[in-house]
Design brief:
The protein is mainly alpha-helical. The chain contains 14 helices and six strands. The mean pLDDT is 93.
C-alpha cells in the first residue's frame, strides 16, 4: 500500500532502493505515529469532520495497533511503504471507509515531522536519565577518591599535583553540561509541526493549538514552510548533543586506557573487562574502553555526517531526508550503549595512587615553591625565575605540603555545587 498510489506499478528495484531501510527504521516511530494520529482524529472531530461514532471506532483500532507495537508484534508488511501507510492500512482493513478519513488535513510530511519530534523528545529524556545516573556515580567516585593524589599533566608531561577526586569530578561536570545541552535541545524541538501538511498548510481549518496541547508540545511550529525546513535541523540538533556526550565519554575512555598502562599504573581494570593476546601471556588489554573511544570518535562526526546530507538542500521536502534516519537512529542506540557500558565498568576500576614522595614527582611541586616565595614577599616573576634556576642547577628541593582551598581545587572539589546544579537541571 502506498498513500500516493495512482494505479501504476513502480519498478521493483527502485522500490526496494527507496523504501527498504526506511521501513525497518520506521518501526521505531510506530507508537509516535499512533499518538500523532490520535491527536489528529480528535482534532478532526472537534472541527466537525468526523462524527463521534467514527472517532470512537478509529480510536479503538488505534489502541489495538498501539498494543501490537507495545507487544512487538507490529510489522510493516511487504509492499507497504512506511509506518504511516501501515497504520492507515490496518484501520481501513478493520473499519473500512472510516479509516480512509484519517489523513484529511495532513500529509506524510507533517506526519513524519511529528513522529520524529515525539521520538527525539523521548530519546532525549532517556539520554538525560542515563547521563544523570552516570554523572551521580562519577561524583560519588570523586568523593571516594578525593584524598588520593596523582600527577596532573599538560603537554603529556608532569605539571602539578592533582587527585583522582578532581579527575573524576571533571568528567561529572562535563556530563552535567551535556545534560544541560540535552534539556535545551529537548525544549527547542518540543514544538508541534502537525497541521502544516506538505509545508503549505491546508484549506481544512485544522486546530493546531488543540493538537499541540494533546501531544504535550510546548508551542507550535508557526510557519508551515519553516516546519518542513526544520527537518534536518532537528536531527542536527540531536546529533550535536550526541557528539558532545561522545566527546566527554570518549576522552574519559582515553584517560583510562592511558592511566591503566604499565607506564603509569594509576588504574587497574578488572580482569573480566580485559582481553588477552594470542602471543604475549602477560597482556590484559582495555578493549572495552578502546572500543568506547573509537565509537565516540565516530559519533563526534555525527553533525558532519548529517550536514553532508542536508547542507545544500533548498526549502521544502526532499527524499534525501530519509537518509537522516539511517544516521541518527543507530547513533542514539550506540550512545546509550556506551553510557551503559561506562556505568557498568567504572565501579570495577581499581584506583592505585602513586607515591608522590618519589623523586621523579618532585617537579609537581614547583608552583607550590613559587607561591611560598611570593607569600614571603618575593614578586611572582622573580620567584618564578629563582625556582627555574634552582631546577636547572639541581638545587630544587620542594616542601611537599599542599594547601589548596579554592572551589574546584584538590582541597575543595565543589561536588556539592555540582550535585545541586544537576538537581536544578532535572527539576527544570
Amino acid at each position: 500500500m502506498k498513500l500516493w498510489d495512482k494505479g501504476y506499478k513502480i519498478d521493483s528495484l527502485i522500490e526496494d532502493f527507496t523504501t527498504k531501510e526506511d521501513r525497518k527504521l520506521d518501526i521505531l516511530l510506530a507508537k509516535h505515529d499512533i499518538l500523532g494520529s490520535m491527536a489528529h482524529v480528535n482534532m478532526l472531530r472537534s472541527i466537525g469532520y468526523l462524527s463521534e461514532d467514527e472517532l470512537i471506532k478509529i480510536e479503538i483500532e488505534l489502541e489495538k495497533i498501539a498494543e501490537s507495537v507495545e507487544n512487538e508484534t507490529f510489522l510493516i508488511e511487504d509492499g507497504v511503504e512506511d509506518v504511516h501507510s501501515q497504520v492507515e492500512l490496518l484501520l481501513v482493513n478493520s473499519i473500512g471507509d472510516i479509516g480512509k478519513k484519517i489523513h484529511l488535513g495532513r500529509s506524510r510530511n507533517d506526519q513524519v515531522l511529528v513522529d520524529l519530534r515525539l521520538f527525539f523528545r523521548e530519546e532525549l529524556s532517556t539520554l538525560i536519565n542515563r547521563l544523570s545516573s552516570l554523572s551521580t556515580m562519577i561524583l560519588d567516585l570523586s568523593d571516594q577518591h578525593k584524598n588520593d593524589l596523582m600527577p596532573g599533566y599538560t603537554h603529556m608531561q608532569m605539571a602539578m599535583v592533582s587527585s583522582f577526586g578532581l579527575w573524576f569530578g571533571a568528567y561529572a561536570e562535563s556530563l552535567i553540561e551535556d545534560i544541560e545541552t540535552c534539556i535545551s535541545t529537548k525544549k527547542q524541538i518540543n514544538k508541534n509541526p502537525l497541521g502544516t501538511a506538505a509545508g503549505f498548510g491546508s484549506s481544512i481549518p485544522v486546530d493546531r493549538k488543540l493538537t499541540t496541547e494533546s501531544l504535550g508540545f510546548d508551542a507550535v511550529c508557526v510557519n508551515s514552510i519553516f516546519a518542513q525546513m526544520a527537518r534536518g535541523k532537528t536531527e542536527l540538533l540531536v546529533g550535536q548533543v550526541i557528539s558532545q556526550v561522545a566527546f566527554t565519554t570518549g576522552k574519559m575512555a582515553m584517560d583510562i586506557c592511558h592511566y591503566s598502562s604499565q607506564n603509569f599504573g594509576f588504574m587497574k581494570l578488572s580482569d573480566e573487562f580485559t582481553t588477552g593476546s594470542s602471543i604475549m601471556p602477560h597482556k590484559k588489554n582495555p578493549d572495552v574502553f578502546e572500543l568506547i573511544r573509537a565509537n565516540c570518535n565516530h559519533l563526534s562526526t555525527l553533525p558532519q555526517q548529517l550536514q553532508a546530507v542536508i547542507g545544500n538542500l533548498p526549502s521544502g521536502y526532499h527524499r534525501d531526508f530519509q537518509l537522516l534516519k539511517e544516521i541518527i537512529f543507530p547513533a542514539l542506540e550506540k550512545m546509550n550503549r556506551i553510557i551503559d557500558l561506562t556505568a557498568h565498568a567504572l565501579p570495577k576500576l581499581q584506583i592505585i595512587p602513586p607515591d608522590l614522595t618519589e623523586n621523579k614527582y618532585e617537579y609537581l611541586y614547583s608552583v607550590e615553591v613559587v607561591n611560598d616565595l611570593v607569600k614571603q614577599g618575593t614578586p611572582f616573576r622573580d620567584a618564578y625565575k629563582k625556582v627555574g634556576e634552582d631546577i636547572d642547577n639541581g638545587a630544587f628541593s620542594p616542601q611537599k605540603e599542599l594547601n589548596h582551598t579554592h572551589i574546584g581545587s584538590i582541597g575543595n572539589l565543589g561536588n556539592d555545587i555540582l550535585r545541586n546544579r544537576l538537581n536544578r537541571l532535572l527539576k527544570s
